[in-house]
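pasting for ref. prot 1 ->
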Amino acid sequence: MTSTKKDPVLVVLQLSGGNDALNTIIPYGDPLYLDNRPNVRIPIGQVLPINDNIGFNPAMAPMKRLYDEGNVAIIQGVGYPTPSRSHFRSMDIWHTCEPDKVGDEGWLGRAVRDLDPSKENVLTGVNFGRGLPRSLVAPGVPVASVGNLETYGVLTGIELEEQRTKALDVFSRVYSPMIGQGPVLDYFAQTGLDALEGADILSTAPGMYSSSVEYGGDTVAQYMRNIAQVHLAGLGTRVLYTTAPYNSFDTHAGELANHTRLWTETSHAVADFYDDLKEHNAGDNVVLLVFTEFGRRVHDNGSGTDHGSGGVAFVVGESVNGGLYGEYPSLETEKLLEGDLHFNNDFRGLYSTLLERWMGLDAQPIVNGAFEQMDFI
């Protein structure tokens, strides 16, 4: 009998900079919200209610629609013990699951290695954006990193096909002799050859794609569109990753305007991606994780908010059991962590749920321990 079961796919959207959880999922029913946010607050009448206590930022109407349809899990108070307010250190912890030391492998790099131990598919993991996130880095694990799918490739500036073919042949012969000359040269050689193969395959994805969904012109929207194109091309990619522009969610000043714009763009991009896959009957095996490295201070600084701790994450997909997971952290002064929200959900439990219940992997060696899982899958 031929199996029609599709492999589960994990998509990750990183909100770089530290998204303000308090103005994302807003505790509008708590008077302490208004007390702590005399300037940087959402008018209560504009909040999109989830219940009598909390609701979505009004810029998040597209995600609120998906939530109402039962396809968004909200992970409240997500974080880790002894939080760091450094962008770099906190994101490194999220990427490597190593809160007590500097890690050398990313959790998704480990996952890709488990998914494809023989490295049969150089496109098991694909990143969209500049640079490769630490979460996808692991020795010997090939991951394609794409800046623009429409122009992605090697030596694409050579217009004549015959000339480009000859140039690529020379390019490949530069790498091949390195193999067998030692671990460092082996690494460089295989990385170069994998890049050649991955670029060649990925370049076919846009030409295979058509959709009635019109994505926005912002960076997140275009990368989510690229992710949809790769998924719909059926290239066997299991992990797809992208990041909001560098530190864009770092709203120390002018937060109300910037945060509104950011969530307007991001919420539409997430909903467009969901609708795009649904239109193609290709969303039943895809789950999207949206996360950030930390939340922000409970009390505003006048026009913005500074680095905090406990935050909020989202899991989106047709297979997601939507709803609220974990308690909203208390705003009472004595229950804050040096003016920050405490975490209620360890992010490694969130990862473990995705790895085991969705991807079918053993989570413990990937997240470095056993952590309480959730029921959103």
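and prot 2 ->
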Amino acid sequence: MTSTKKDPVLVVLQLAGGNDALNTVVPYNNPKYFDNRPNVLIAEDQVLPINDQVGFNPNMGPMKKIYDEGHMAVIQGVGYPTASRSHFRSMDIWHTCEPTKIGDEGWLGRVVRDLDPQGENVLTAVNFGRGLPRALVAPGVAAASVGNLETYGVLTGIDDTDQRLKALDVFTKVYTPMIGTGPVMDYLAHTGLDALKGADILSSAPEMYSSTVEYGSDTVSQYMRNIVQTHLAGFGTRVLYTTAPFNSFDTHAGELAAHTRLWSETSRAVGDFYDDLKEHNAGENVMLMVFSEFGRRVKDNGSGTDHGAGGHCFIIGDQVKGGLYGEYPSLDTEKLDDGDLQHNNDFRGVYSTILEKWMGLDAKPIVGGEFEQLAFI
């Protein structure tokens, strides 16, 4: 368990679409990389070296800086047995920790239930983006989902305070009679009331915030900024989630240009997020996990890469013991998983490490078993 005095907070950034692990942490000293990537490759002289074997994509400068400061762990070869190459199925597995069946509860929904069993804080978990990730969905668990924090709220277009309060009172009277009339109606009623309450609380976060950090204008940067705003507002939020939108890391074609833009934006967003927390002296109890549902195939397809298996994830924070964890998956043909990188680390072991060593929770019922933990905390 961490020694930080404040409640530990987990931030999750999901790279939707399947990030190309080989062109993110590049095995630039392995001739098999260049053999398999005649077109979609990072030249050796462009790599940001980690050691004499692997290095970061050249567009990951801000994250490389955090790594050099000792606060970023790179978990190599993350995945799970019998990998699915389907976006929807693989992401569902990551979200529910159920590789062999369709799960009905998200792992972070279970976390929120453990952290706040009575549902006393409607903002224990907040998602920034469209919809609500499966990871945060669990029966009886409230999680706010925000499209834009600056304009978030209920009936915010009504300027007159009295009129707005009267309108909100009408909404409350609509939801309240539903409680106790059946499990579905009960759930919807509580969810509706929680949404009303959470919207009003969250809408006050931006006005309490000031910073010298200038985030990019892209969606991920703005959501990472919103996450810092929410954290600094002191709402007791313990889980914050956002997604690089629109399956953007699904680079079947035009990958070199797309990956350049994606990692330029993502790395800057992560760097600004980290600097913003540091500026406010508010990072000691925050940990960020960056993951994608799978990697890409070892061989390129001419201008891009297709769905693969093993990938990498990154853990960032003041309390993180930085470095490389696990072996880089082999590029030897006989050691590939049907042409893809094998997984060396089960993602549920990464979750278990975070849950037990950071959040102070019993991981087994959340991830569905006991998995080897790592030493990044």
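The radius of gyration is 21 Å.
The longest helix spans residues 255-279.
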